[in-house]
Amino acid sequence: MRDGTRLMSTLLSPSPPFLGFVGGDSAIQLERHIDLRTRALEHEHRGALADLATRDSIDAYRERVRKHAVRSLGGPLPRVGEVRSCKHTDEHVDGLVVETLQLRDERNVIIPITTLRPRDLPQKSPAILVLPGHSARTSSWSLDLSATIASAGFVVAVLEVWGQGERSEYRDSEGRSALDIEPGDVLPVLEHNWGGTAAWVVGDSVARHLVQDARVALSYLRSRPDVYPDKVGVTGASGGGLLTTWLMLIEPSIAAAAPLIFITDQEHIRSSGIPQCAEQVALGDGEAWIDHVDALIAMAPRPVLVGSGDYDFFPVDGAIATVAQGRAVYATLGAHDALEHHRFASGHAVPAQMREAVADFFAKRLGRRGKTSSQEREWSAERLASTRTGFVTVDDPESVRLPHLAARRLVEKQRAATAESTRIWLAERILRPERVGEPHVRWTGEESLQLGPEAVRRRAGFWPVDEGVDAAGILIEPSPHTPDAVVIALFDRGTDDLASHEAWVRERLDNGEAVFAVDVRGTGSLMPRTRNWFPMDGNYGTQYELLINLFRIGDSLGAGRAYDVVRSIEVAGEYFANVRLESWGFANAYAVTAAVVDGRIAVRTHGPVLDAATFITPYPTSTPRDWQQIIPGQAVHAPRAGIEAALGERWTPVGVHDGGPVAPAHRKD
Fold first, then answer.
1. pTM over 0.85
2. Does residue 16 surpass a pLDDT of 70?
3. Dihedral angle over CA of 618, 622, 628, 630, nearest 10
4. 25 and 470 in contact (C-beta within 8 Å)?
5. Are the C-beta atoms of 148 and 168 separated by less than 8 Å?
6. Cβ 133 vs Cβ 237: under 8 Å
7. How many Cβ atoms are within 10 Å of 256's Cβ, its own excluded?
8. pLDDT greater than 60 at residue 661
């Protein structure tokens, strides 16, 4: 239990403990709530797996999984169309021909790839697409893995993914990163997460665009005259293992797959608190659930090798359980030996033994065998670069980037947002029927305080808003009279900011109004406990983890906090005839969306109200704390224009106001 005096320590002197009365430790309420809801979906998922006893049931299950995977990416992917290639270099490294190319598809996206093949390759060969893990440049892991596979007699292509290497895109004209890098940040992950916000606000996952790039590379490999088009496999480690599983879920044409140092299960990831990048997040709908085993089932009975490190931060216990579940399905399909699991006494790395095992696996399954060489090599990023400056966006400032793709998706999806359509869409996400029913506020003892020359009364209360989750607030009234009106105050940092707004509180009391300073879930006195070593509101921090775990179950912090505001309005309405909202900074977003779905309330916002469309920018203009305000799809279904129409004269912006949405990033194609 944390120090319960925190809530009452704002505004003048500290008061007696309060939070000890809340139903459970407030620091773990939200985490437990998400865990319980997630476990319910996982229980249903395990039940569905237990029913996979026939080929027909497996086929039907795989079809459902594929459809949900596509929905979680944002809907059907575009066709690949024509893929153009342009070769830049031709190297010879230890018996291998190494080429650096750029691919372009119908999106006009530039995709650097490196291909490797033996010098003495016959006319046709199987091919493998290698997807790299997160690193500043295409990692030596990926290149050494590619070289090992190529030496066994394959054409291999290693893809440069969005956000890293030559495709690091948030850069100025001189190639400097436009992102603020904190200690411990990995730049590609940070870029993926910023790109992830642009995708989330239009209802997509950033994995949509990474997957599409991989599909382009697969199409290129199949088009090569030296490749058997029906014998193309895929592998990758870490972030590349993740991208491999996405392809396993949605690409039925893959001949074989080897996801490395990634496969585990969602339960172990969630309980371990390990950071998760945006492309790991399958946007949920509150009903369907995707776990790592579903990638194995989607591939069955095609051959799969899962590579795990016993000391990896992706928990190996989850990998063991997942492979066991997958093997039951493979056995039902008569492919007992087609799913392999290789474990190594290693951490988050791809040691020589793992590289050799992957090369042997593809050789056995796709029918090639050369002299495998797993030696580590010195790879020159400069010699293998396909660009003049080392960065696609610096070479070609007009090149298509992740924000451009998100802006295109916004145009594709967006319809005219009316006041009613905006209200209905937000209400469906904020006023979920399973949330707690009638509020029953519980108050602490009343105190009499001196605020300037006047005496005031102060008390604190808390009330349920979701299963196992409370909101809380401090009510300040002039003494001895009880006013008819109350202002619900939503400060930037919740009740932690109450003392710094003392002058504003005195103005309201002098105006004959009470003040009800409210903490919604995960803010102020209800701040969650720290789950990992990253800053609470930072990239990969605790609030980020809670956010993405809610996304997986079809919910969001933005919607939940808006609901808590609606509940606080109901609580205040039990005691006061007139209720209105005022908000500051970070709280403006959920104050405004709450007012949209509760038509009785007027709202006054201080400072800018972040427009969902402003996440779609060529250079980041938000912070990881702002990400907590995202309701997936809001830029499409509840844009600024729709919110303004729904609120009309009920919204009074004060101070800095952005005056409307920022134009999304775009380019001429």
1. yes
2. no
3. -40
4. no
5. no
6. yes
7. 22
8. no
